[in-house]
Each structure stands twice: as structure tokens, then as C-alpha cells.
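Lecture notes, part 5. Sequence design as translation. It can be helpful to think of inverse folding as translation between two languages: the language of shapes and the language of residues. The source text, in C-alpha cells, appears below.
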């Protein structure tokens, strides 16, 4: 094992040839792991990340993540690759919840998830894919709910496998957009993709259109089709959740999504939907904690 204690840096510097780390590299928070200089190839068998850590790949340092990369909840993980190396990911990259993830860090490196390498993230993450003027290639790409994902506007992001965003129904919408406001990121899918509850901004799909059901066309999208199916939404503006916390905001405001739920009498605090012209709305005994008149 190669454990790095908190607030430590490990640097492999100015060495050509092939380097292989056969044991796991454990980054325990506040660490910087540097592969710097030389025209070598570095093979990392396994990387485990806790807390805030940076992997920095120097110029011409081709790097192979042969094994899995695991990042726990509440982490800040960045892989910064300087100009013109290649980064190959043969293992599975698995991220937990509520983390900041930056792959590329606005560098000119070719990133490829090859073989059976996959990318999976849980909920409430911020994910930035930014390899500058080089393409970024994923296999299977799967995320949970309420993630914010930014794709580079410089070159293409290619999905050779499945693109799955589990945004749910009204609760926990995912967001995809470009790293540059008003400049489209270019996505290429292997097959036509159908996703739900997805907010889309500044995205151009190059092949196999993206269809979004009950999502949001924020602005400046090309070859993205938005469809809607009717919801049944329940008013919960006068109720409290299981912890006794009342719905937030103005409890008499129709336009506050916290006052609506897709489940009768259940306030989650995560709803993002407001009733539209095709939706059904229901007020019943479960809409209020106590009997009272209400003006909405």
C-alpha cells in the first residue's frame, strides 16, 4: 500500500520509462500525488480517496488507471493533467455523494475510459469534465440524483456505452451544461438516449439525439428533444415532514415547488416540479397538518 497521510505530497519526478504501482494508493485528505516530467508511462493499480486530494499528471506522462478509483462521500477530488499526456481508465471510477469532482482541470489531455472502465456517481455531486482541446471518451456513465455536470466546450465528449441519469420524477433533477456560459458543449452518444427530469443548458448533441422527458430546456440546446407527460401533484403546503419541519418558503405560494409532492401527503423538500396545464392537482386531508382556511 502507498498511504499518504493528510496534508502530504508525493512526487515522482523527471523519470522516463515505465512505472507501476501494484498496491493501492490511498489519499487520506489534503494530499497531492504528482507524476511529473519525463516521457514515461505510469500504471496505477488502485486509488482510494478520502477528503480533498489532487492527482497531478505532468507533461508527456502517459498514465493508466488499471484498477478501480474509489472516492467516498464529501470529497474534493481533482485530476490535473498538463499538456499532451494520455489518461486511460481501465477500471471502474465510483464516487459517493456530495463531492466535487474535476477530471482534466482545463488541460490538453486525451482521456479514455476503455475496456470495461465505467464512471458512476451517487447524489448531490458537482462533476466537471474539462480536458481543453482534446476529446473525452466514456464507456458507461451513470449518476444518481441532483448532480450538476459540466462538459467542455473545446472538443467532444463521447459516450461509447450507456448514458444514465437517474433524476427521478420531479425530485432530484440532474443538470448538464457547458463549462462556458452560452457556448455549447458537444456530446456524442453511441445510441439514442432518453432521460427524464434533466435540466439542459448550452448542449449540442452530434449524433443520436437526446430526448428528455419532463425536463427543462434552460437555453441554447441543439438536437435535444423535450417531451412532457402529465403528473399528478399533491399540495403539501401546510404539512410537515417526518422530522416536524414545515415546508420551506411561502406555504401559500402556488409557484413554490416545496409546496407540491408526487406522493400524497409527503413533503420531501426535493420536489422541482410545478403544475402545468396538463397536470392534475389534488388538495385533500393530507395537504394540511391542521384544519384551517387557506388562500393560495
Amino acid at each position: 500500500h502507498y498511504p499518504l497521510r493528510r496534508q502530504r505530497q508525493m512526487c515522482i519526478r523527471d523519470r522516463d520509462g515505465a512505472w507501476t504501482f501494484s498496491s493501492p494508493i490511498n489519499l487520506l485528505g489534503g494530499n497531492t500525488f504528482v507524476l511529473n516530467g519525463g516521457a514515461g508511462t505510469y500504471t496505477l493499480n488502485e486509488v482510494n480517496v478520502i477528503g480533498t486530494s489532487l492527482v497531478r499528471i505532468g507533461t508527456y506522462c502517459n498514465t493508466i488507471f488499471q484498477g478501480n478509483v474509489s472516492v467516498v462521500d464529501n470529497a474534493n477530488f481533482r485530476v490535473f493533467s498538463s499538456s499532451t499526456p494520455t489518461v486511460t481508465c481501465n477500471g471502474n471510477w465510483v464516487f459517493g455523494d456530495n463531492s466535487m469532482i474535476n477530471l482534466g482541470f482545463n488541460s490538453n489531455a486525451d482521456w479514455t475510459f476503455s475496456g470495461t472502465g465505467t464512471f458512476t456517481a451517487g447524489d448531490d455531486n458537482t462533476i466537471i469534465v474539462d480536458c481543453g482541446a482534446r476529446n473525452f471518451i466514456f464507456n458507461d456513465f451513470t449518476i444518481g440524483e441532483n448532480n450538476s455536470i459540466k462538459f467542455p466546450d473545446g472538443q467532444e465528449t463521447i459516450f461509447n456505452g450507456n448514458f444514465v441519469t437517474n433524476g427521478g420524477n420531479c425530485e432530484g433533477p440532474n443538470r448538464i451544461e457547458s463549462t462556458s456560459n452560452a457556448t455549447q458543449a458537444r456530446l456524442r452518444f453511441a445510441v439514442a438516449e432518453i432521460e427524464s427530469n434533466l435540466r439542459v443548458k448550452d448542449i449540442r448533441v452530434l449524433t443520436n439525439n437526446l430526448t428528455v422527458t419532463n425536463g427543462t430546456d434552460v437555453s441554447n440546446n441543439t438536437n435535444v428533444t423535450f417531451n412532457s407527460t402529465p403528473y399528478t401533484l399533491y399540495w403539501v403546503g401546510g404539512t410537515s415532514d417526518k422530522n416536524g419541519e414545515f415546508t420551506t418558503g411561502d406555504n401559500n405560494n402556488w409557484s413554490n415547488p416545496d409546496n407540491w409532492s408526487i406522493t400524497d401527503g409527503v413533503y420531501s423538500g426535493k420536489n422541482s416540479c410545478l403544475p402545468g396545464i396538463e397536470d392534475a392537482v389534488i388538495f385533500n386531508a393530507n395537504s394540511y397538518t391542521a384544519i384551517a382556511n387557506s388562500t393560495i
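The translated text above is only one of many valid answers, since several sequences can fold into similar shapes. The radius of gyration is 22 Å.
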